[in-house]
Fold each of these.
Amino acid sequence: MGLMNLTAVELGKKIKAKEVTVKEAVEAAIVQIEKHEDTLNCYVTVDKEGALKKAEEIQKLIDDGILTGPLAGVPVAIKDNMCTKDMLTTCSSKILSNFVPTYTAEAVVNLEKAGAVILGKTNMDEFAMGSTTETSAYGETKNPWNTAHVPGGSSGGSCAAVAAEECSYALGSDTGGSIRQPSSFCGVTGIKPTYGTVSRYGLIAYGSSLDQIGPVAKDVTDCATILEAISSYDPKDSTSVKREDYDFTSALVDDVKGLKIGIPKAYFGEGLDADVKKVILDAAKVLEEKGAIVEEFDLGLVDYAIPAYYVIAAAEASSNLSRFDGVKYGYRTKDYEGLHNMYKKTRSEGFGAEVKRRIMLGSFVLSSGYYDAYYLKALRTKALIKKEFDKAFEKYDVILGPAAPTTAPKLGESLSDPIKMYLGDIYTISVNLAGLPGITVPAGEDNKGLPIGLQLIGDCFKEKNIIRAAYSFEQTRNYKRPGMIED
Amino acid sequence: MANIISDETMEYVGILAKLELSEDEKEQAKSDMGKMLDYIDKLNELDTTDVEPMSHVFPVNNVFREDVVTNGDDRDNILKNAPGVKEGAFKVPKTVE
Amino acid sequence: MAKQYETVIGLEVHVELATKTKIFCGCSTEFGGAPNTHTCPVCTGMPGSLPVLNKQVVEYAIAVGLATNCSITQYCKFDRKNYFYPDNPQNYQISQLYLPICRNGGVEIDTPAGKKVIGIHEIHMEEDAGKLIHDEWEDCSLVDFNRSGVPLIEIVSEPDMRSAEEVIAYLDKLRLIIQYLGASDCKLNEGSMRADVNLSVREVGAKEFGTRTEMKNLNSFKAIARAIEGERARQIELLEEGKTVIQETRRWDDNKEYSYAMRSKEDAQDYRYFPDPDLVPIVISDEWIARIKAAQPELRTEKLERYKKEFDIPEYDAEILTSSKKMADLFEATTELCNKPKKVSNWLMVETLRLMKENDMEAEDLSFSPENLAKLIELVDAGTINSSVAKEVFEAVFKEDVDPDKYVEEKGLKAVNDEGALRATIEEVIANNPQSVEDYRNGKEKAIGFLVGQTMKAMQGKANPGMVNKILKELL
């Protein structure tokens, strides 16, 4: 058994018990990275030297009894849209190709306090806009289960790196499903927490009202442990919520007796792959057999979430991304005539097609004469969707469904038709609109051997319900690794 | 396609967003935007009369800072990533005619 | 007969609030400083940075709203105003459009035709932009973000003003209110108070407003008055020639006394306002409003009345003393020290105003301390110096805030109260001026003035004039 097929918590225990040094753990990760990066391209930046140096510092703090937490000394990969001091942070975009932040994102600071060693920054869809990690300016990431397929997105690099054991765990971000969908495609576990649980300070914004950082790991225990470490009330983020409970690991209990689980009928309609459907319904049965009360119900407005999301996310993005203009940081075009030409050329050369598409859509829906018809309409729809979930959670503790309608598509299949690509987000997007927590856990494979993830959605601030259900479900199956990394 | 995006609209959005597309990109963008707006028009099926637009999901209000200076001179860091710097300031193409 | 035109003016007044820190970050708002030394990731728009609202900004905005009779919007929000310009680091300004913090107020001004209320449409909070410096040497511009994120309130009036005089009266009124509240120092020349003028003309008697233009870059009361006259003339000329006024933003050039259109193809003037998702709503309770109301300092009108009653100061003098907060503060602090309000008032009304005028200063620029003025008054009262010496000492106090005790001592300006020495000098003066002595004795009372003058001259101005008079009369 290598060190990298351990879960983060298992590895942390071995480090704490002095069975393994931090340096050995980091070196094991680097071996995996060097073995697979040429094929998979999970990382934009690997900081080998920095990680080895950090390993020594952390080891000393562990030896001195200063660092005692479960993640001390465990190597981690960070999605490249979180600022890391003195480490390149690109958002997988050309426009930030040379951006080295002077401060670190709060979630990452929290991890560092817990003794994490950062290996590097993972690839993603440019500015988190995409579902395949193919819109990265630094090449696509490939799915470790089958390199002809995408890993999903936008946190594709993080999820593929965890699956390929190029890190013990990773941080991702989720604006419309960007943790849960690639977790499903890569056969790993990922949590999108309740909006406001993890500070957004230092997360390079895409859709500010929807973005949340969350953990990606091999199992539910890891995810709960990581979430406990990165969550905090942050006075630097006005949308940060002061919660009463941050003890997510207390929900790691194998018991779903009496837990009320609702399955939205609309999640199993047209467009859902037959294999995915079977795996998800089987998973529901497993939970029912373990004592949960499972029933189908009508969740309204499922079809309206995607259009509402694209208006809101594009509008916020058009404003959030206007700061990339070649003045303060990042790429500036070589030749230009005057200020406005500099702006236009810098941005047109610096952003990729999908980002430009969303910036233009966002600028349009906010422009004079359209604001009410598009933007306010979308915010009203959001209010109605939230109400639908509120109604559902009066009856159920957990909503169960797929994370995506299909398994990972082949490389190059998705980008040609944006609407089709957007439709793939149907099960994840409404969760962001309503600010809810959601988790994806591996539940099976399709006939091609590609992983299928089960999504469990909880009410706001009720992460513990979905952690408990996911943990209980996980106990019924073994973690499966992609064929390419079997040793 | 119900929404036809004109060249003028593309030009206007380009001015707002500071983006300049090549002819090929422009045609593609027009068609994409039209399709996306068609799709977004689905929202018109919903009656949202009397529904308050929801910006924030949670009713969090009144998040304030006290009026206390916490930051010192951090100029070197602030200028570190700038494409152009002169005399401690960001250098940009001239803004006055 | 030529057509008669009426000018219709509304103002957008920007006021920099007197907070210690910026509106959304903990950077200092202190004026000056080398470029970009008062900046951080938030006020330079670094990726991933987030704004957190300074509570004091809200309190100042509410205080100004209450003092200008506005209603307070008890559920208000910030919106983003999107436009590209290098002084705006995020390429959006955080401002308020949909739910500004104050609405529907007004202030009363005095006009030759009597009192008039100028309506206030709204007051909103927003962040200031950075500063652009043109670099001639390299033909580029340089951006300094020290001012970026300094809190502003924008006070938007109704189009209720009809002349430059009314505009000045309105601005003066606003300035006094805000200064008295301590919400800003309102210095036009330093830019902590700025006014954009919206102006249109219409024929007298017309019901509809004409097309308006907005003029920017006005940094003194005089420039505002000239800009109003210039723009009024320009618009009337257009109409007389049968042309139309275009709604646009114009930049006033005070040297050329003409405004220029600021339009460009790249300015769409479509700001795509939407609620800022990084900031949460502000809910202002009745209790909060009551607390701010209770803490409101005495405003000008109340102060003026109190001065008349408490100190027996005449109306005109009280008006001058309260015409700026600085002057009123000086008056009260000095009076507190010496308990001689009339004398304090006299020094401020006469010598201080004279020297301010001579040096082209505003009350805000006064830098002498109440302690030193009080000391000076004591010195005169005790007869330690005479009044003409006192004026000389005051000039030194005014300019360098010197300690009058030390100054008088060092310069040897003490009045001579030694009767023996005086008597000898006066006897000499009498002996040298027989003609005047004779005139006096023949009933020409005024002749004594000449003799006093001669004595003072002989004593180098340091004699106690009362004593000189007394001894002279005795000897004569």
Amino acid sequence: MTIEATHIPVLTQDELETPPLSLGELTWRRFRRHKLAIFGAVVLVLLFFYSFGGALFVSEKYANFNDTAQHLLGPNLMHLFGTDTIGRDILARTIYGGQISLLIGLFAVIVETGLGIVVGALAGYYGGIVDNILMRITEAMLNIPEIFLLIVMAKFFGGKIPDISMLGRTYSGSVILIVLIIGGTSWMYLARIVRAEFLSLKENEFVLAARATGTSNFRIIFLHILPNSIAPIVVSATLGVANAILSEAYISFLGLGVQPPTATWGNMLDGANNYLDSAPWLWFFPALLILLTVLSINFLGDGLRDALDPRSRTV
Amino acid sequence: MTRYFIRRFLQGIPLLFIISIILFVMMMNMGDPIATMGGRSMVRPEDRARLTRQLGLDKPIYVQYIYWLIGNDWTKSDLDGDGIAETTGTRRGILRGDFGTSLVNRGVPVLQVIGERLPNTLILMLASEVVVVLGALLVGIYSALHQYSAFDHFITAALFVGYSMPIFFIALLSMYIFAVLFKRWGLPYLPTVGMFDPQVGKTTGQVLLHMILPVTSMSIVSFASYSRYIRSTMLEVMGQDYIRTAKSKGLPRPEIIFVHALKNASLPIVTVVGLDLPFLLGGAVVTERIFAWPGTGRLFLDHVSRGDLPVVMGILMLIAVAVVVFQILTDVVYAWLDPRIRYES
Amino acid sequence: MLKRPVLNTVLAILIVTSLILSGCGGATSTPIVPGNTPQASQTPETEKKVATFIFTQDFDSLNPMYSNMWFSAVTQQLWNCWAWVFDNNNEPIPYLVTEMPSIQNGGISADGMTFTLHLKDGLKWSDNVPLTSEDFRFTWAMHTDPKNTVASAYPYDKMTSVETPDAQTVVIHFADPFAPWIIMWKGLVPAHILQPIYDAEGTLDNADWNMHPTVGCGPYNFAEWETGSFARFTTNDNFWGTKPKIDEIFIRFVPDDASQIAALTAGDGDLGTFIAYNDIPKLTTAGLNVVTQPSGYDEGLFFLDDTANKIGSPGLRDVAVRQAIAMAIDREAINRDLLLGKTKVPASYWDSLPFYNNPAQKNYTYNPVGANALLDQAGWIDSNNDGTRDKNGVELELTYGTTVREIRQDVQAVIKQQLAAVGIKIDIQTYANDLYFSQDGPAAQGQIDIMEWSDGPSGFPDPDIYYWLCSEIPTADYPAGGNWFYTCDPDLDALIQLQSTQVDPTARQATISQINQIFHDKVYWLGLWQDPDVWAIGPRLLNVKFSGVTPFFNITEWDLTGK
């Protein structure tokens, strides 16, 4: 790591009297300049409102209601987005499907970040044997292409989990499964990044100081070092949501994702496979929603990366 | 340095063992090869019982793992169901180079099954990698040099869109538009599926023509991330002091960009490319399925769905070995390129 | 010092050049400009007639011993030979034999245990070696040899011996009267080629002939097979029968449904297989002809009715509940809306065998009111007002599981809603194919109350069944048992055993109509839709007829128009 020579700051009167900006404020300032990122954030908020707020207007019973006589109708006044192969309203399904897709994205990232931080922090902080073993396991998982892991794990656990009722909704147990699988196959990158951060940070004086005052290792790791390495974690987590949503679409295409009748944007796309031209409304709306979500997350993550990374050039 | 690499190489071996155990356990519990042997109807009970015995599937997991690892020609099994183990096994195990025979394509050696499909995948993936790297270099460098220009914004937006779409979607859509619709509208069109047209035969021209759609679909996603990456690396490098020195020395622009800046920016790219290459073996699973390209990705899908343990393990282990080898190779190249890097002795 | 960027570009150029060079072993590549119709060959030789078939799955093996895959079996009419084939009405036509054996002509002994076949004159393999009764005996011997891991040894494992009194006569002995004799000899293996291999290696498992059967006995010869990509069959010049009109059959493997439709509509294929119903309009507008051919398969629901009262929901063991289910599902609407009215609701397991479904069974009609009344009468009422009926503290909650296929998942959602309307709660499960049908899978272990898959009499067009035999209930000693419904109905069991021994068709028909009636009254099986083979025929093909058993039975008559 090169150390850049900086000029000695000369404090003006103002700077002596006003407190220096905190990391959060600094980040916010830089973030504000990133127009695409702001756009992304706004769109994301709107999408969340669509999926969770929309549920207030449309009941789940209505979303699951099928009437084969009404199947494959194009967008009309009764059904704004049209109906699917067994007559369910697509607008309602995208709302409830959005809930599942977004939740999968969110929870998969929580699993992924949790695992990544734990493994990376322990490996980076303790070093030695612990580091060796943890890194071997990480490498082992990394060496297997993600799509293969997804396929194999999806089949391994398939079908064994019953329906679950949570947050007032009933849905297929395969949702938990998909969250675990996606989270369990993407934590490795974050673990490596966290480990690298810990390796460099643990030699700093504040750690020595903490150790000298007898702080427990646990507190040092999670209360001292971790907050300082938050930047790459935040960026990775944000982009991880996008990756999780795309992964969900992927395994749904292979038939191993969340099982119908529980809707997700991914398996709605899969169901539209054979209707690309005869019933474009089947895939258009879920595809658009996936695109908007992933796009805005990518913009957001890009903006966060620029804002949080001290070495970036956009200040 | 050499000792470091020898150590890395040796470290790779327990790694491969761990990988093989993880994969074997997962594979064992995820499918019954006999279940699909009945074709369109169910397997008859007598056949099921007989096949379980003949294929050695009635043995516990760890025994099957050991047979897979070191073969079973040192032990006898009961092939004819009379309860007496009198037939010596014929497998030599993967450690002696015998990857076993496929359960689905009965009797065909796994390496032969994989080997027939590997070149097809390599053609596709290498072409795709070349297109991506070259294209990303061009776009990334141009974008970095004209940061915040209209072109930069437009390209960024377009790349993000491409990066955000599921690949099967791009593939199906492009096939639908360029192959089916174009033909319907009388425009010059591209072929839909396969490697070549049977009426014409398997010529180079045919294969290249059929490669256009799959390679484009696959490249879009990687292209986006590579060029963003190159752009940001170039930006970082261009801001360095030595570039300012070169500029103030009055060196011609192309030389600054391609000689000084790119040389240093390309180091991380080498790493990324080097680490990506072994995964080429897996092939783009989804693209191959859609375009009916006979590669290893499709092979994996087909054989996983029929529980063909030897073939699937063979593919996964080959990839694992390739990844380990390529990681070490990348480190070698990296060290050769960057004189600042010295590995612990 | 230009190390990196030069290296980059040089490497790239090298790779691209090597790609081009590597492919350059082929013919003079006329620069293919997109837009050329790919049909007219540029060379002035006589035009070969090549028909392109599209298969959605790659064969696993071509040897009939090692594969039960439909895609592999149907090619046997191209390069292999069966003793008899079946026409478009699924009636048998003698192929290798001079006439179909029967009790009248002495081909079948009175006790149904001995069968005599007389082979035609002049039969030979594609290498001019005569095809004799020895090939039949060899086929039987190889199927039953424990050193060969054959996919299915049935019905050869029921034969006690196969004798060859002379080169044109085959005498087959069974241990018990064998009514389903029509399923014998679905493919032969050449003794003169494989016997030496068997003697040398002790098994036929690893023979190259399994994957590349260069010696066959059909109108076509196997030419090549590039796994995952294509297979080619060319005319057999030494064929003992009428030569085919088409010179070459090119089979291309396209696994994805959408891609298959795209290829067919773009004219890249002459024949398509297993077309989904919603794709039919697209194909007909593109000029293809879509044909359905009954093949004995019906999609239906099977019910877990554990006679021993240990496994599964007690609700399903009540006949009234099953009858209510039959009345509560609007199967006509499913056929009309989801299958576009192209099939019908099968009332009987033998729906495609009118001879045995005689008198023809009638369907339960869609009658939710009647279903509700029936359940009320049987004591299933909703005592705790949770929307689901219950009785004696047991809720009427059933698991309904099937495999991952879009039409099945649509049907599951529809049925769940219709059954909820009569107070039955359904819990939907889906599984991958090879997990669902596994011996350790959920269905075999009795974890699914309502099972669904497509099935029919095991040896269509023979009406034999065996699933509901009491002896087939899986136990710890016999885990491979096929009675995944755990049902032991003594009357049914006796009748099933009886019909498998009755070689006299009239007697057998009477037994089967009794079984038919039991199936209907006790609702052991509920048909959802008839599952025929759906073929798409391109405009170039002529004289095409299909069979439900041997689809390419008249392949020698197929022809291609000039265009």
Amino acid sequence: MYLKINQVSKTYHLGETTVAALRNVNLEIAKGEFTALVGASGSGKTTLLNLVGTLDTPDVGSIWIDDVDVVKLNEDQKSVFRNRKVGFVFQSFNLLPVLNVFENIELPMTVNSDLTPEERRDRAMQAIKDVGLEDFIAHVPDRLSGGQRQRVAIARALATNPSLIIADEPTANLDSKTAHMIIDLMQNLNQKRNSTFLFSTHDEKLMSRVSRVVRIADGMIADESRK
Amino acid sequence: MIFDSVFWKMAWRNLRLHYRRSLITGLAIAFGFCGVVLLGGYMMRMENYLKTQGIYLSHSGHISIYKKDGLQKHLTDPDLYSLTPEDQQKILAATRSLKSPPVFVARYLHGQGLITNGCRSFPFFMTASEGASETWVRTHPLTQFWTPELLALKKGKGFWENETPNLNSPNSNSPNSSSIVVAYRLARLLQKPLINGDANEDLSASDQIVSDCESESALATVRSHSGIQLVGSTFVGGLAAADAKISGHYTTGLAMSDAGAILVPLDFAQSFYGTEQVTWMSLFLGERDIAKVVAKNLRKIFSERKLEFDVFDYRDERINQFYVGAMNFVYVMMVFFLVLVCGVVALSILNSLQISLLERKIELGTLRSVGFTRSSVTSLFVREVFLLASISVVAGGTLAFVIAGSINAMNLRFPLVGTADEIQFLLKPEPWLTIATGSVFIAVACLTCYFECNRRLRASVTSLLEYGA
């Protein structure tokens, strides 16, 4: 199994209030699966994605990705792990405004000392082709539409050749037509690169497009379905 | 990563993106640096003025050599605590064996007594030197550059003028050895406005004895000629007395000594005090930074040869009390202002960073999520501050040099505390000091950024990625 979540719980303390975001979550995802996490706002989707993406640490439990217990990694090791193994796509794209399309996509690779500048360039160019943005290579994010920005964000996530791509509500800020295009793109890339995709959404229309849907409610896995 | 151009590009573009904030922070650094450079320029002016005055015009040289305990006791027991001709030869021989021999050696005699105009007497402090060495000192490029105000006599001519210094024979005697130069304030006390050879001088009046100093004509008689009398005690305790003519009025450069100083030819002083001895010998070196080392080597040579001489370098407060005291004060002030301005720069950077880090919180989170470590994110911000501080320092330094050049061209004059006369308000920022101070500024700015970014990046990545938090 590529991703294995064992008895993971996470509690947030907001002043005197304690919020149990996740409670004893168990989940297994195979290599190359295209999985949607669905649930209402505050159900714990983002918390689970953050934990899987090593952006946060669970209070209890373990998370294994590609045979690595990521909970036990220190901060710098987590950074390297994210850089080599995980790609992120954010709801608000999170592109750097001072960098153009190419530079935004190349950025995560600049901290990978195993890559030569030529390899970085080739990978960035390939990712740009994969998302169909060859004509916008020198554009800064401000001059792109929402859909184009999200495609840049996907290309940035793909350029490092990660085995896991995490997307937190990637279509939430897009109109439905563009949202479907983005999902199509993600599915194509999933098949082409055999990367594991895990993304959250509360768009019911999108759920019919994915092979596996995991429902989450009140911090627990409520049910799941496969096509 | 350090040399990766994309990070420098990001830094530069971020500065441009937030150009108003960058401009304001940059101006704070530039003006602060400009102020420090100008202050440094003033400090260099003061230091060089006082140092040149001390080394050359107060005749202490870079190194001065006295008989053992001679500095303290040469006035009370001059015969025992002055340098005999044999001592002088031994000192010259020792200087020749130095790795960095002096470029010039001068001999000086220091004495005291009373100077009188026939009616009133005042204590004098005599410095006697050879004409050749006085000429060498007064034509030296450093004295010409830093203390031109002190070189020109207030009136008349010095006994050293019209002589060519003979470096091989610094003992050459002055041809006009009964002409002396008195400090201009002492000349005023003595009621001696005229100098020897003045067209208005009444030569016959110098032979007259003023019998009634209270009479109206007495003052006119005293003022009508340049003659004075010196009275003192010879080296062996006898009476010393001599007539002399005032050939010029000069300034020592120091207010405290201008009311009693006289400068006389060495042979005149030796004749007056009945001695062949001198009080000290001064060594003038090619570069002043080696004075301490040369003094140490000289002490070692004297010790090996069992010679009992005291050696002082010009930074010794027993020799150049005013210079050492004034510069200590100036250094403390300089450090105080440097710390103050660096503090302001650090706070400006901190203030700007606080806003910048808050605005770019999501960017920090994004960078962390795509694999940047805390230190690599910090290095991005440090690059921005480095660029901003470097540009500001170059701009501030350039502005400082322009201001200094303009002020110097105005020839403003001011009385420096403790000095005898007004000096030009010169600002002479030293390139090496400017570069050193600029480096300190850049380092302070970068360190401030480094610590603040590190502090901010201790937050979890998820909290950095939260909007509005």
Amino acid sequence: MSDKKVLEKVNIIKECRKLGLPLFECPHFIFSMMGILIILTSSAIYFTGFKYTEDPLLITLTVLIVSAVLFTMSFIITQGFEKLAEASRMKLEFLTIISHQMRAPFSNLRWVIELMKSGGAGKIDKKNEEYLDILKENSQRMEQLIERLIMVSKIEQNMMPLKKKKASFEKIIEKSILEFKAFAAASNVKVSFEKEDNFPEILIDPGQTREAVDNLLDNAIKYSKKSGKVKIKIYTKNKKAYFEIKDDGAGIPKSDQKYVFKKFFRSENALKNQTDGSGLGLFIVKSIIENHGGKITFESEEGKGTTFIFSLPIKK
Amino acid sequence: MVVKILSKNMKTILFVEDEAALHKTLGQVLRDKGYNLISALDGKIGLELAKGEKRPDLILLDLILPKVNGFEVLRKLKEDPETKDIPVIVLTNLESTGDIEKALELGATTYLVKASYGLEELVEKVRKTLK
């Protein structure tokens, strides 16, 4: 290793920043702390031994050997951590690049379909219009997935700042219900909305809150039974606004419940009942709610349904 | 590559975008709606055409461009007394707050993220800006 590289490695803060890790989770910092601890402990043992034994040389030698072994071990362990952190950073970078690169061609595709459907590129017959609808639907699904991947990479890089303002939470929910009206009708699911009188405006990022509500409502409809019911309720308690969404769908098996908010996780039940889904929605919802200083929990029973509840501070 | 299709008494739009496919789609729709369209596939040509014989009434500008990037094009357009009053709609896939703020500070009239708009919505934005 060249002198320059050694000096770079010594700059702990720079190295940790490069890995995108906070100081207390950074291998370089942990290694330095372990090193200082080993030196202090070794010095204490040496001075104690020197004072109380007749053969200080033996003590010195033992302390030196033990310190060297501890140093080597901690170096190997932290190197392992460093490799893991680097792999995780590269994975995130890969995700960011790929999702951004895929975005442009899909915008182009969408616009071409739109142009063709409008007849701007020449007249098309009914059959071809049906094929264009299939293309449109599938490109929309891909675009949605790309948008979600971009959102995940933004969340993980702390690049999704909140643009908070006082907003009507109930209007956000009403708009979301309206948007999912056709989907709910097609799925034969009835959506109801119950709200407390004079529900106050709350300080939130309306766009991100809508994203969270949309994801939960989409899931509730998607995993509901035929002729199912989705009940949404909002209320206030202890200076917090609560959102509750209850479905009578497939439910989440107990063994899967601890993984529900992990990204890319899809419960076996979900896969059985609905193949469409990325496993990113609930990860995004949790991040949005927690960024607002809120909390999200759920209760679920297999075969009976699931209830998600999140809270948001009313003023902050 | 420069494509010029000009008609008299029509508003002229300069579209600076390196993706040829977008000139075909958005360009086609704008022409169908009755606008003159001047197309540039890189920032350098975009700057030249902005000061050309037929001055555009509006510029649609991508940010990731070959030769001269969109921010630089925007800065130069707004520094030049000949072009500083031409409204510029930034049309890009970059969507970070930093990029948006930078473009608006440099003088962009509107900032639109391609992924969030359909063709008809874009044409409506163009129409409103030109009004």
